[in-house]
From TrEMBL:
Keywords: Methyltransferase, Transferase. It comes from the Bacteria. This is DNA methyltransferase. Gene3D superfamilies: Fe-S cluster assembly (FSCA). Residues 13-84 form the MIP18 family-like domain. The keyword rRNA-binding does not apply. GO terms for biological process: methylation. GO terms for molecular function: methyltransferase activity.
Length: 110
């Protein structure tokens, strides 16, 4: 049982690593460091569910990000299907960004 848990954790980590290659076209920073990814869950069958948000509800790039997320997460060995759930709670704020993203965007008060 513990081996399955460890494999699941490793697979989730690999998906998160892959999502760091998904760049927000407007900001030029990956969606993980922007804090847009809220949760990644991969079940035993390789079904990956990703809960994420956007910086604004009317983001015109949501289709592009959805496509790129499915492409990158789906390329991880062991992932068979990717579902992206767009959520609005908790509300995204700049506090969710990593230090790297803040520095890259020149945001003060780090």
């Amino acid at each position: 049982m513990e081996d399955g848990f460890m494999e699941k954790e490793a697979l989730t980590s690999q998906v998160l690593d892959a999502l760091e290659d998904v760049i927000d076209p407007e900001l030029g920073i990956d969606i993980v460091n922007l804090g847009l990814i809220y949760d990644v869950d991969v079940d035993d069958a390789g079904n990956c569910q990703i809960n994420m948000t956007l910086t604004t509800p009317g983001c015109p790039l949501s289709d592009v990000l959805d496509r790129d997320i499915k492409e990158h997460a789906g390329a991880v060995e062991g992932v068979n299907q990717v579902t992206v759930n767009l959520v609005w709670y908790p509300v995204w704020t700049m506090d969710k960004m990593s230090r790297y993203a803040k520095i890259a965007l020149g945001i003060g008060g780090i």
